Amino acid sequence: MSDGLAAIANLFGRALDRASIAFLVTLAVVAAVVPLLNLAVPATSPFHLSSYFVALFGKYLCYAILALAIDLIWGYCGILSLGHGAFFALGGYAMGMYLMRQIGTRGVYAHPILPDFMVFLNWPELPVYWYGFDHFVYAAFMVLFVPGVLAFVFGWFAFRSRVTGVYLSIITQALTYALMLGFFRNNLGFGGNNGLTDFKDILGFNVQAPGTRAALFAASAFALMLGFVICRVVVSSKFGKVLVAIRDAEARTRFLGYRVEAYKVLVFTLSACMAGVAGALYVPQVGIINPSEFSPANSIEAVIWVAVGGRGTLTGAVLGALLVNYGKTYFTSGVLAPYWLFVLGGLFIAVTLLLPRGVVGTARHWWREWQARRVAASTARNGALASEASASAHAAE
Amino acid sequence: MDPRTTTALLYLDGVTVSFDGFRALNNLSFTIEPGEMRAIIGPNGAGKTTMMDVVTGKTRPDAGDVYFDGTYDLSRLDETEIALLGIGRKFQKPTVFEMHTVEDNIALALKGDRRAQTTLFWQETATERQRIDDILDVIRLSPLRPRVAGSLAHGQKQWLEIGMLLAQEPKLLLVDEPVAGMTDAETRQTAELLKAINRDRTVVVVEHDMTFVRELGVRVTCLHEGSVLAEGSIDQVSANERVVEVYLGR
After folding, report:
1. How many angstroms separate the most distant Cα atoms in chain A?
2. Which one of A162, A237, A238 makes the best mutation probe of the B interface by having the most chain B beta carbons within 10 Å?
3. How much is the pTM?
4. Do B95 and A251 touch (CB under 8 A)?
5. Most C-beta atoms within 10 A of its C-beta, which of A262, A336, A337, B232?
6. Domain segments of chain A: what residues?
7. How crowded is residue A125: how many other Cβ atoms within 10 Å of its Cβ?
8. How would you write the pLDDT of chain B (250 residues) with one tens digit per residue?
């Protein structure tokens, strides 16, 4: 028992280096200070943060979790998923179904059980797959379970058939596109192209209330911290080293006796579950989930966040998601709005050509080079001093 | 388990592999006895690398039998299963994990439980550290332990890959052109290293460098157009007229 505890302590000790702890502390401070500045500081104060700001940055934090999930598989295992938005959206739909069931009789048609869109479509009763979603715990379970099972089944077939590289990227893209077309259909029972919206309560609290928004912001920051810790534990373990080995020399890893597809399926499923959680936290903060969340462009955008921040760095993925989304909000709310996609495309090209390591990756690279040069310089100086000393000793003789 | 069908450690009989009508291996048969070291030579396209692909599970033969240790039908197993049976392979182009340190490269190759649930909670033991130390000594890379493998010189990468093979503790090592691109001194050291490895493991070396093959001083098999052209000591094989004609040149 104490052995097990020691092993776990060791696992976290290895995972949480100084940079990781600094990152987590920063997030914890943000999670505490932002809601405080929103709720406790009067609106007249210059330090007050508006509820609009809280909701906006809460949304960015959810994107950051998605970016983290993508970085785990792309940055460390070389799996470029261009369909991770699908897992995000599925998690979002699971949460949306819970929120729909919480509306109760407050809907336009005031039906005690059926959501408005089902009444509108003359559905006689709730479909079986909507059962249980009035319970938060069940919905929370489905947030992990549905993306996880889809990723497991998809990964099982794709990785066992050794689909890799651009072919894998294309079929992940096809996956999210197929889901988008499916969810657009009214008869699938998820509200068709309108999706799920008009939410009232979450866990008994009004989703529009500033207090709820602040709590959702803090919850998103907390989920991001948790996701970061999980990713760090994974990548700093021997398992993580095998992932990097697969990324850099897959055949070599197989010939060493590692079951490559098992590693890939596992990490892909974990990543999909994280994306699901991100989607689930996103939906109550933006107030709607519809099939456009499955759009392939969304998934590609998420990959760009990771590329900008620096893949294989984790913190870079988070930073990239925050930076690019802040840029998006900034550009699309001004006169430059029509040009956002050009800016995004330009950014991707610029990063690929000029900063292939991304912002954090490049910074780390420079830091290491600088340190290596300092060490080399100090050894050279010591060497010079030593030879000078011996020369003067000779001279003295 | 089937009873042993042969005393040989590696047994190939009538193996044929075709790629789009081209017969890379054509009714290839030979055996490697336990503890043996064998050199395989032959011109480009003779089927040397394809033979290794078949033995390690990368390519499935169209016809023929491939048995390991008399009992395991290698044509039914995949790369991972074959590696776990105890067959290690060194690639023609040195293939190491470039972004990992020299030490981690060996650590990843060390024999042990390779399942995902174990590696996730893995803690390095003192025995493993000792094993890594020993192997780094053998391949003369101890001083480069913390270096990233991608920054090593070509010859050092070749040795690191051989070290990774040793860490696997295989019964049979397949070594594809280990001295390609090496200096004369490195070539000589590599020959010594392989001989040392051969003291407790069976080794198959594919090589073009005839000086190196002569230095190994072992039985030689010459392949040509996917089957065995000649087999015997280096002197016998290099005296064979057909071998001279298709491979060595007059």
Report:
1. 108
2. A238
3. 0.93
4. yes
5. A262
6. 2-356, 361-397
7. 9
8. 455 667 899 999 999 999 988 999 999 999 999 999 999 999 888 999 999 999 999 999 999 999 999 889 999 999 999 999 999 999 888 899 999 999 999 999 999 999 998 898 888 889 999 999 999 999 999 999 999 999 999 989 999 999 999 999 999 999 999 888 888 998 999 999 999 999 999 999 999 888 899 999 999 999 999 999 999 999 999 899 898 888 877 5
